[in-house]
Structure to design on (345 residues):
């Protein structure tokens, strides 16, 4: 599957978590995320142990990147990052905003970034175009929850995301968002 | 619906006995899980580092957030200390994350989920507190793996000892 389609799935997953929190409730979202993490790790383990996963194999083929440490890694890390944002953020609205920045900022950064030509000088895999796309899309998505401050947080997180720290972006962005907010 | 109240309000003899056992003997459970993990997983150093990080971060996080624990049932004694994030959930999910991809995971996941559930069932943690613990446990293990992945080659190069 093309990277663009994978990022659309990333945005859709974030939107689903946000809608779940806003329209159903925080605790329901937490339970859903714990269930998703547990199921993802269980299916990933079964796959690593040599079992076939039936219809899930098709899903894995469509959405998972080739170079991952374990099956369903992207989905699990996204759910863990969302769970962290919802629990460690000082307010629920900031937690939801962090998920919005993660989903829309990161998703759009990849979508636009791969077409960019000018690399940021601290990471040859990231472009200025992707960085700006992250800041704008993340800010727009988070603004309904935390107002114009969303653009400030989104810009800071765009720079954080552009640094190659070796940890999955789905974890780095929510953790960085909470740390920046607490500071 | 408040799941913290709903779960804490539920009462079953066997479930209470099992939850009180986990509450009382959690350090013993951790030791047994640690021994099993040392034999049956490959990411032992990351597990040790993640547990050390958990030991360091948990008191800091609890002190910083200062979220009180609920005191919802009489199944066990109330604890009047900050409860976010849950140490049981954090440590349990460090083990769960460390065992991914091994047969041990099939034992650690139910243990981890039950340990987390039992804290809410006994009324000593809220759902948010165990959810935070689960997220923290997994993140600490992932971060430990990355630290070791970057640090071990440097140590090998510099000292030739590792």
């Amino acid at each position: 599957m093309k990277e663009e389609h994978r990022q659309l799935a990333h945005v859709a997953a974030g939107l689903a978590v946000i809608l779940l929190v806003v329209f159903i409730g925080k605790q329901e979202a937490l339970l859903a995320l714990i269930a998703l993490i547990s199921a993802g790790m269980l299916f990933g383990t079964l796959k690593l142990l040599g079992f076939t996963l039936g219809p899930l194999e098709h899903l894995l083929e469509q959405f998972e990147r080739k170079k991952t440490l374990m099956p369903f890694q992207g989905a699990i890390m996204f759910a863990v990052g969302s769970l962290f944002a919802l629990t460690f953020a000082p307010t629920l609205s900031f937690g939801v905003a962090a998920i919005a920045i993660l989903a829309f900022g990161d998703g759009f950064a990849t979508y636009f970034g791969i077409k960019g030509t000018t690399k940021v000088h601290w990471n040859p895999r990231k472009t200025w175009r992707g960085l700006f796309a992250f800041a704008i899309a993340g800010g727009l998505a988070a603004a309904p929850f935390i107002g114009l401050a969303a653009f400030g947080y989104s810009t800071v997180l765009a720079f954080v995301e552009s640094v190659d720290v070796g940890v999955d972006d789905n974890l780095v962005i929510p953790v960085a968002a909470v740390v920046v907010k607490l500071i | 619906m408040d799941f913290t109240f709903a779960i804490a309000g539920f009462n079953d003899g066997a479930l209470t006995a099992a939850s009180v056992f986990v509450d009382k003997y959690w350090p013993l459970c951790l030791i047994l899980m640690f021994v099993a993990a040392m034999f049956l997983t490959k990411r032992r150093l990351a597990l040790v580092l993640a547990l050390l990080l958990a030991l360091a971060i948990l008191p800091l996080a609890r002190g910083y957030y200062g979220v009180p624990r609920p005191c919802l049932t009489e199944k066990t004694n109330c604890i009047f200390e900050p409860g976010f994030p849950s140490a049981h959930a954090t440590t349990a999910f460090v083990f769960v994350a460390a065992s991914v991809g091994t047969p041990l995971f099939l034992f650690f996941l139910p243990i981890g989920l039950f340990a987390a559930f039992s804290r809410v069932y006994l009324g000593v943690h809220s759902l948010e507190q165990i959810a935070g613990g689960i997220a923290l446990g997994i993140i600490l293990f992932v971060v430990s793996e990355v630290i070791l992945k970057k640090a071990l080659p440097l140590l090998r190069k510099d000292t030739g000892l590792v």
